[in-house]
Amino acid sequence: xxQSRHTGPILLFGAEGQTGRELRRALATLGPVIPLTRRDVDxxxxxxxxxxxxxxxxxxxxxxxxxxxxxxxxxxxDLAMAINGTAPGxxxxxxxxxxxxxxxxxxxxVFGTRVHRTAEGAPRPFREDDPPEPLSAYGRSKLAGxxxxxxxxxxxxxxxxxxxxxxxxxxxxxxxxxxxLPDQQQLAIVDDQHSCPTWASSLADAxxxxxxxxxxxxxxxxLRDRGGTYxxxxxxxxxRYDFAVAAFALHAARGRSTPSLRAVPSAxxxxxxxxxxxxxxxxxxxxxxxxVGVPEWRMALALCLAGIQ
Length: 309
Prior knowledge:
The protein is α/β, with parallel strands linked by helices. It has one domain (10-306): Rossmann fold (3-Layer(aba) Sandwich). It is built from ten helices and twelve strands. Helix 1 (18-27) packs parallel to helix 6 and helix 2 runs parallel beside helix 3 (77-98). The termini are far apart. The relative contact order is 0.16.
């Protein structure tokens, strides 16, 4: 009888990042996790990556590391490409050589200005087979990483996600919560960028559930059969302004002071990198393939904030 627990070593890159910290917890239910940080290995060094994999001989590689400074990537495009575009391919090659599987996180920023619409004219979230058209160096590097893994052709799972946040770290939510503003002071928030907020904790849990389902069906072989690229993000979509309104409403309910919010166009906050105006992700495929999803974004946000003392 096959067990759902994966007992081989799990090599986790990016173990100190927002998602990586949550994956250390979630993946421990599957087997021993070997966490690696940027101090342990430089993702821009292909030879160092290969050595790390061969030293630890994992049966599963999970890559939660990324160059995610979207604006700075416009000035450091080569570095962003090395980390986001080249390194995933190296990991896929090493995984294939070792008979292991690789899990990699990509981004909704592989999409651009094109908005697909339903028959009623409403925006339609992007499906996995919609053509990408990244607008930024960051988006191009993430797409290159997807393509590099796909070209290797081993057992792999690419999970496109969006607007990953937590209550701490360098995320949009954490930045909002750090603001020390007098009650009702006005704060301008962009309202013309829309996607799916994704709590890092729920993303990690869903990843572990997908892997448990795969290992119950045969491990890496199941990933070769069912793997590929899937969208995995918070259920539903909103604007950054909507997200801030919901976050501060929950904050106020706990007796915290909150600013007055003003919706503004992104043109009021010019940035080096262009962002897609609508990049919500359709997650039906991952639910159908593995029976796993991420909670509705408002519910996840409430759970995230409930954990703050």
